[in-house]
Give the backbone structure.
Amino acid sequence: MERTKSGSVERVRAALSELGIDGAIKTFDQSTRTAAEAAEVVGCEVGQIAKSLIFRAKTSDRPVLVIARGDGRVNEKKISQALGEKIGRADPEYVRERTGFAIGGVAPVGHMGEVVTFLDEALGEFEIVWAAAGAPNTVFATTPGDLVRMTAGEMIDVS
């Protein structure tokens, strides 16, 4: 594993450091872009991958981050209900513009702007989960409770 110098990874590293979580980012030669790839590289269950999906609020145009377990699906109606407005999938341009991350490397922290965050309560089944760290070959380990704390997100049933 070699340390990456990507600007987005450094934003995540700085955000984690601010939260008192230093040295957590792992960089791999293999891709961790998908939950299945990340689980294989890390050596964990696919469900332990905390995948970050960005949606676009249809009325307010706010970015909405949903952190779901890697083997789960997101019910957009439940997210819309929790948010109080309809959402739709965000295209790669919107994701990069509003978060500073490319799809496949969207981290739970280090966003370029504010995001509304919802976390999958099913992540609570695991002691340790792995989240993207700003590039499609970087991840960090954390706990579901720390994910809630670091994102100030709301834990809900997203499936």
